[in-house]
Amino acid sequence: MTESTASATASAPVAIGIDGGGTSTRVLLVDGEGRRLGEGQSASGNLHDVGASRLAAHVLEAWRGAWAAAGLEPRPADSVFCAMASVGTPRNREAVRDLVTRVGVGVPGAVEVDIDLVGALAGGLGGGDGIVLIAGTGSSCFGRDGSGSTFQSGGWGSLLDDVGSATWLGTGAMVAAIRAFDGRGPQTSLEGRVMETLGLEHMRELLPAIDGGAEVRSRRAALARLVTEEAQAGDAEARRLLEEGADALAECAKAVFGRLDFGDGPVEVALTGGLGQNVPAYRDMVHRAVEGQIPGARCVEARATNLVGAALLALEGLPGTAAPGAYARLLGIG
User: Fold this and answer.
1) Where would a tag sit more exposed on the chain, N or C end, judged by fewer CB atoms within 10 A?
2) Residues of CATH 3.30.420.40 domain(s) within the chain?
């Protein structure tokens, strides 16, 4: 950023998008022209997992990082949109709104909070209607039709749901490993990989290794890579887990499709989240499953990240009208 640009931006309206997921909290700072100024990142943005005080610290760290990347002194933004995991109730959304305002990220009254799927839909489909699937640390599905009606399926957390997610796959890897170990399931290379990854000398050490501490879910999610790697190497149990995960995610999308009215035309479905976007073999499985379960579904590459989607919604909240081309410019950085 040039000195003149920095000087102009220092007083011009700015918008901030926050993407809070199970693995990270990310902040994107943009100006009224839709130009990316800076991005910051910290640890988990899941209120349920880390609690309000730690989430506030993570938001603050990521926010400061975004301003530092912009080469500017931090100040409250004129519009903030927080697309966060675990804010399905009004009470949780209010808690996040309060802590984001309290640490100085946005001016009072300018902070909006909604579920992470809203940002994922805005980014994944470029602000258009359709269905978005998140497959990251957790999973969920959300859609919006032409009338503005919305519906969510899934997203009940790792204890009850999170089908097809990294946590679900990681847990499945451990289940396959213990069943192979004690003779209830088929032999699988996941048995040895789980023990090696967790540093176990005996399989009976598995439960205490993953059944305590504040980062239980993230430790399970980290094992998802074993499933994708062993499936690629030809392990049948790993392949089965991926296929079941893809089918379960498609089932979520089918439920959303059934509750909304997309008319006779094709409905676009975008897959987002670290697992869904960064593992091509799994992404292709999910796409095939979705198109097999939903007549007229057209799976598309996400046009922008969930973070850019949150920033797009923040840009819409700036006072007045955004500059011509601002939304297109912002989507172009995703």
Assistant:
1) N
2) 3-123+305-331, 127-302
